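sanity check this:
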Amino acid sequence: MPREDKINALIRDQWRELGIYYERNDVLQEWWLIGCRTGLLAFTRQLTNYADDPRNELPSEHEHFGPYGYLKVMTWPTPGIDADSIHGSVGDLRRLTAIIAENVKTMRTGEILKIRTQYAPDAEYTIVLDLRPDDFDPASLDTGWQRL
């Protein structure tokens, strides 16, 4: 298999492992999290794993998600969402996980839901959940790997 094909396959696999596709829209100041119910709930489990790891209790600890690592979750004294990260104390991040999970469980396919004030009223950015059908492949929205 040529090198480019291996890289493309790795990128697709990383989106599928994450369970969602994400995009940051700086004009609208939004982080879009796009996935089926199973994928969005898998992402909440990854957030829970981050919050449950004792190494992440100190401010500035962080983890990058997805094949390009643009989405960063960071431990910080106050909850917030900005162009750099989704951040807060591990308790705040657990609360965000619960907010996302509770909403995803009741959303209908095709529904879009915005989360900001429930988590961090003064946040610069909003998290937008976009619930897709059960057979949604998060790698299908990433056209960047196709240019390699």
The first strand starts at residue 21 and ends at 25. The mean pLDDT is 94.
